Amino acid sequence: MKPLNTQERNSSFWSFVLFFTLCVIIITGAVSFNFILPNKQFAELKIKVKDYASFKAKQSGFMSQIDEINKKLKEYDMPGAAQSFLQKDISKKNIALEEAIGTENETNKVYHRIVENYNSMLSLKSKLSDAKVQLAQANSVLSDCESENRKVEKELKDKQEKK
Predict the structure, then answer these.
(1) Inter-axis angle of helices 83-101 and 6-77, nearest 10
(2) CA 33 → CA 22, 41, 121, distances in Å?
(3) CB contact set of 91 (below 8 Å; sequence gap of 6+)
(4) How far apart, in whole angstroms, are the C-alpha atoms of residue 82 and residue 22?
């Protein structure tokens, strides 16, 4: 006893199996992508966060060293400061800062320029200090000359009055 529509039943069965398999594959793929892709993105974001944290730590270290150099530069301008000692100390800090920077990317080039600016600022402050000393010496020589000039003028007036 064979059914009359066997061929129709077989084709319906196989089409059902085919569509069922396609649906299962699609649903399984969607669920797996739902879990796999976020994990990959999360791993990439972890790497970016780690890079940012190291960059931030490096930058905060750089800024703390810059603050120390600024304090030393302010001390350099104070009267009675040991300028040669401060100049050596600032130079050492600049060299240490330069070595800590490295040469990795564009940001480091900016850091190098900042250190160069501090080095030039230090040399200009040194020149300014020397110029202040020279100005003080010139002022003392000028005051000596003025007092000598007054003495000579007084002697000249005394001689003219005696005549």
Answers:
(1) 170
(2) 16, 12, 58
(3) 119, 122
(4) 84
Q: Read off the pLDDT of residues 3-26 as tens digits, 9 standing for 90 and up.
A: 778 889 999 999 999 999 999 999
CA 141 to chain centre: 47
- Domain ranges in the chain are 28-125
Cα–Cα distances (Å) from 11 to 14, 25, 94, in that order, read 5, 21, 84
d(CA 92, CA 116): 13
The alpha carbon dihedral of 130, 131, 132, 133 has a sign of positive
Concatenating the DSSP letter of every residue in 105-144 gives SHHHHHHHHHHHHHHHHHHHHHHHHHHHHHHHHHHHHHHH
Place of tokens 């009675």: 80
Say if pTM beats, i.e. exceeds, 0.70: no
Nearest to 65 by CA among 104, 102, 105, 115: 115
